[in-house]
Each structure stands twice: as C-alpha cells, then as structure tokens.
Amino acid sequence: MNMENEVIEFDIGLGGGGDDAVDIEQPLDDEEMADSSPTGGGSGGVGEVYIPEGDPDLEPYEGMEFESEEAAKAFYNSYARRVGFSTRVSSSRRSRKDGAIIQRSFVCAKEGFRNLNEKRTKDREIKRPRIITRVGCKASLSVKIQDSGKWVVSGFVKEHNHELVPPDQVHCLRSHRQISGPAKTLIDTLQAAGMGPRRIMSALIKEYGGISKVGFTEVDCRNYMRNNRQRSLEGDIQLLLDYLRQMRADNPAFFYAVQGDEEQCTGNVFWADPKARAYYTYFGDTVTFDTTYRSNRYRLPFAPFIGVNHHGQPVLFGCAFLINESEASFVWLFKTWLMAMSGCPPVSITTDHDAVIRSAIMQVFPETRHRFCKWHIFKKCQEKLSHVFLKHPNFEADFHKSVNLTDSVEEFESCWLSLVDKYDLREHEWLQTIYSARGQWVPVYLRDTFFAEMSITQRSDSMNSYFDGYVNASTNLNQFFKLYEKALESRNEKEVKADYDTMNTSPVLKTPSPMEKQASELYTRKLFTRFQEELVGTLTFMASKVEDDEEITVYQVEKFGEDHKANYVKFNVLEMRATCSCQMFEFSGLLCRHVLAVFRVTNVLTLPSHYILKRWTRNAKSSVILEERASDVFSSYLESHTVRYNTLRHEAFKFVDEGAESVDTYNVAMDALQEAARRVALATKNEGRIPIINGRIREDSTNDGIQAKYSTGDHQGSTGQQLSEDDMDIKIQELTHELDSANRKCEVYRANLLSVLRDIEDHKQQLSVKVQNIKLSLKDGI
C-alpha cells in the first residue's frame, strides 16, 4: 500500500473485545441453544488446543483469493459449519482517503470476553441475563483488498481453545441458522392455514429428512412467523382504525383509544361499545383477559376482556389489538380499559401465565386478585411434560387430583410433594416455576375470592373465549369485522333467550321448602338450577354441633357414610351469617350444601338477603332502586320469625344444659319454665291489648279474672302524683300501640307498592324480550 492508502484501524473487539464488537447477530432467545457445544461447555481447558479435522484442500490459507468480501465471509462460515463452530465479523480497517473498508477480520464466535463492567449493564437491571459464551478463542480469518479489487487472505488461525460441536448439532449454532427461500414459502403457507410453529417445524423436519438438514431451529421459525405477522399488521391496521372511527361516528358513546400516534400506529389499540361499558356496571366484579389469540398460531393478536352475566354466559367488556407486547404497552392498555369502565377496578382478574402481564396488573390493579388460568397451565403442562404423559399414563390423573381435589393448603402441599417424588420431577424447571406461582392458580389458594364460577373443578363458560367458533387461526383482519359483529349478535341472542326462559317459564320445585320457592322467584333459571342442586344435596348430609360459644356455633357437616371427609360451618344465629370451610359462597356467590344443611337443622326457612347477590338474580340489570327491598319484604315475616325462633331455641338449650346440672337447679328451672309458659299464654291470648309498663306486666287474680294493673310501688292507695304517672304510662302505651299499628299498615302498603314496581319491571323486561324477538324474526325474514 502506498501513502495515499494510509489506513485508520477501528479495533472493535479483536483480542479482548466484548459484546460491543460489530456483531450482526440478534440476541439469543431464552429457548435457543447457546453457541457453546453441549459436550464442550462454555470454557476450554487451560492450555488445551482443538484443531479442526477435515479436507485440507477446503481449508483457508494465506494468499487465498476471493472475488469479494462477502465471498470470503461465506467461505469461512461454510468452513466453520463443516468443522463445528460459529463465526462473526470482528474488526475492519478503512481507507483514510475515501473511508472504504480495505481489511476485514472474521473470528470464532467464542473470541474475546464479555465486558461485564460496561455502562449499559451497570445502569439498569438485567431481567433475562444471557449465558456467557466467549472464552478468548483466537481462531480467525483476516482478508484485505488488493489493487486488483480482489480480496486475499492475510492471516489464518486454525486452532481453537474449546471443543467443537459435532455435526448433528452444528445447525444450532447461530451463524449457520438461516431460513432458505423454499423454507420461508412453506412456513408462509402453513401459517396461513393456521398451523403453529411446533407443527410447522415437524412438517419441515419431515420434508427435509431431519432437524440437522432444516438449517434452523423452532425459535427461528417462531421469530420469523412473528415478524411475518407484524409486517402484515402494519398494512392492515388502518382498516381497524377506519372501522373504529366509523363506529364512533355512528355512536358517540363508542370508546376507542390508540397508544401513541394514531396516524402511525405502532402501539396497542383498545375499544369498547356502549353495551360493554353498561354491562361492566352490572357484572364487572370479575374479568378474564383472554390472550388465546396472542400466539403465533393466530394471525390476529386479538385480546378481549370478558365477564360473566347473570345467566353464567360470557359478556364482552372491550377488546384490544396487541401490536406491542411490552410491559409499558400492557400498562397503557389496562389503564385505558379502566378509564373506559369508569375507573372501577374488578374484584378479580384472570389471565394467561405471563410475567409481563402480571407485572402490568400489579401496577394498574394493585387491589385486584390476579389469577392465572388453570386450564392454560394444564395445556402447557401437556407440552412441557409430554414425555412424562407418554411414559406414565396415570400422571395426568395424579396431577389433576393434587390440583383440583385437595381441600386445604396442607393437603395440596402434601399431594404435590408426593407427585414430584413419584415421577422424579423435583428438578423440573417448568414445574418449579408454576409451583412458585401456586398462589395464583391452584384453587385452594383462591377460594376466598369471587370469580363467578359455579364449581372449582369444572371450567366456567366464561373461560371459553367469547369468540370461539367465530375467530380462528386463519382469520384475517378483513374477515374479522364481520365475524366480530356476528359473535356479538349471537351472544346477545342467547342472552335474550335466557331472559325469556327465566321470565316466562317456571322451574319444577323438588322440595316443599320456602327457601326453594324464594330462590326460584329471585334467581335466573340457570342459577336457580345450580342452587337447587345444592339444596337437594343437603338431604344426604348431616350437620352436628361441635362447638358453641354463645355467639357462634360450629357445625360439622358430612355426607352420610363419608364421615372421613367433613366440612365445618360457623353460624352466627343472631346475625344469620354462616361461613363454610369450602368457601363456595366466597368463590361463586351461591351458598353451598353445607351451609344449607345447617340452615335446615336450625330452621332457617328462607335465604337471608345478604346471601342473594343481585348479579345472579333475574333483575341484575334492573335500574329500580327499591327492587332489592321488594325481595326483603317478600320474606320479612319468615326471616323475622326465624330469627326469633333461633334466638329462643339457642337460649333455651343453654337453660336446659344448666338446669339439668343438679336437683336444685332442675326444680328452679321447672318453676321458671312453668311461670314463663303461663306468661307466654297470657301474651298470646291478649296480643296487642295488654300494655307493658317499664317492661313488666302486673296481674290481679281477684274477681275471677285477669286484669292488667300498673303499680308504682304502693297497693293500699295512690296519690294524685302516682295516678298521674299511671295515666301517663297508659297514654304512652296507647300511642305506642297506635304507632306500631300504623307502621304495620305502612309496611303492607310499601310491600304492595314494591310488588307493583316489581311487576312493572318484569313486564318491561318481557316487552324487551318480545321486541328483540321481533327484530330477529324481521332480520331473518329479510
């Protein structure tokens, strides 16, 4: 080289270079195999030299010429594939005259060492640290350009300081993983047909005759499919925004929001129609954020917010398109959804098992109970433990038993430990991960929170996506809008049908219980059927009192013939409140058969109002404020009678226990009971006519009759002052009696009025159902 070609050297990692070298490769995925050989480890032995074996004629040598820099790079990479290592570009030298590259070095991917002290890692927390793969290997190839324009090898180091990768694993090395044109075409075709990356890789392995001949891994396939989907969405996203703008123009109450610039949409999109927002006020206590369509299997990254209505059917609370799936984007989405729902967070929310979503929910819904979808975890279990499922046919049943059929935290922990020991899975990484998160998906940890599910072991209808049967893996954005509207129409029709059945048909009662009749008039048909199952189930259960501390009585409830398995119910008779160890009411909002069995033996004849959740009643969507009081009036007599009965019964039992201790206490108790019986008979005969002064009744048995007489302490004569006080007491009692009579009449009038209001509301809902049916029939006719 002459003086005008004097060069400037850019040392970007040669020798001691770290991750700042010119590395054109993408970061490793968590599931991707590292560049190090599984057999060779991350660092070579001290002083050991590994010399590649192969055809000497195909090895680089000094003086070897290439037509271009790219040709040299391709040759060295091809050589590396044959002998078992990965390559990368390391350093270059440029001409001072025109800045053109005149020298290039290609090195083994294990060249240099990672700089662990660099500023970009010190100033922030590394959430997913990459494994260390660089071990200071010196193997390299250097080429420089000649005056003729050709590139010549100016240096070649053959020896490595680490073991090389065998031929059957070389396809996992990063520089040798490339998706060819024919492979891309096949992936595109299969992705359009709705296949996921796992099934596509199986097809490619079969097509090419082995994984090593495919030339890339499943991670590469998944990344390619994700990028494919991102590119297609960039062209289609304006269609979505145009649709949302039109919906807003048609109805100003329609809500939509775009993350970032609406003209150049690169963030998430959210929308909710007026019905979704209204329904959230009725049924927004529990929500499912359904990310089924997030996976590469689907072409649309579509995620609806779903709730459960009073018929147990899924209802929509809004939808999102997940263009960006970063934590910040999910935070934006949840905050936007909360704003659209009037800022009222749900009691509970269910999502897929995802660390990013979990972090976003903790920020936006700190008071909301977050649950991972158990059924998604079960499905993932079949993938992660497929070898165990194949080898051990009983594993699935044992896994199901430990998760779904345990009644306490202690029982679950014991069953889980037995499970992982029995199948030698204690060290299984994925199982350890879900076990550490057990408080967010195992039922025994969640039963104290409302999730609107009728059973802990059965899957709720709401967990089946709102759009099942409409949006599938091959749905594109052009098809989506029609299918979306069709799904809304179908769900609405099913709700109308359920409303009609509830209002116009009467269920068959299976017992003479006033409670069953009460429930049949309050609950929707489906919820009543579920309640009826529990009520009838009490007939096979026995409730025995095991503890009584005056205020709270504890009952042991067990099924006849199954005394080894019992539930415990704590019952406060004065407040008419009961809690069961199974926690069904807390979880589903319906009383369990264990509490109902206790109600049966304690003569609680109707459901106390605090055990009737409005969201499960036929009037869940009613706007009549007094509606709930109508149900209270409907059962007020029975409830007040039940309270009086249970209170007296409770006190009488204590009286009997103490009176039977000895002969003396027995005689005193019998005298007291006889006196009480006589006074109760007197009160019954003269109900409403005998005034009670200062809480006492005075009796005079002379003149062959019973007279109520009021005394202030002197029976021989009364002064004017004493008579005046007696007259005053009598007057007070008369006024009190009149007031009580007036209150009773008012209660009757109010009950009649509320009954009329309830009839009006029922009639309004019936008319609404008929209007909907007419609309549907007209639409079908058209």
Automatic annotation (TrEMBL):
Can you tell me which residues the record assigns to a coiled coil? 725-752
Which organism is this entry from? Davidia involucrata
InterPro entries for the chain: FAR1_DNA_bnd_dom, FHY3/FAR1, MULE_transposase_dom, Znf_PMZ, Znf_SWIM
Q: Does the keyword Secreted belong to this entry?
A: no
Q: Briefly, what is this protein's role?
A: Putative transcription activator involved in regulating light control of development.
Tell me, which GO biological process terms does this entry list?
A: regulation of DNA-templated transcription
Alphabetically ordered keywords of this record: Coiled coil, Metal-binding, Nucleus, Zinc, Zinc-finger
Superkingdom of the source species: Eukaryota
Check the record and name the Pfam families matching this protein: FAR1, MULE, SWIM
| Domain SWIM-type, chain residue ranges per copy | 571-603
| Stretches for region Disordered | 10-49, 703-723
Q: Listed GO cellular component terms?
A: nucleus
Query: What family does the entry list?
Result: Belongs to the FHY3/FAR1 family.
Record's compositionally biased regions (Acidic residues): 20-34
Query: Per the record's keyword annotation, is Disulfide bond included, yes or no?
Result: no
Identification of the protein by name: Protein FAR1-RELATED SEQUENCE
- An annotated Gene Ontology molecular function: zinc ion binding
Subcellular location per the Swiss-Prot or TrEMBL entry: Nucleus
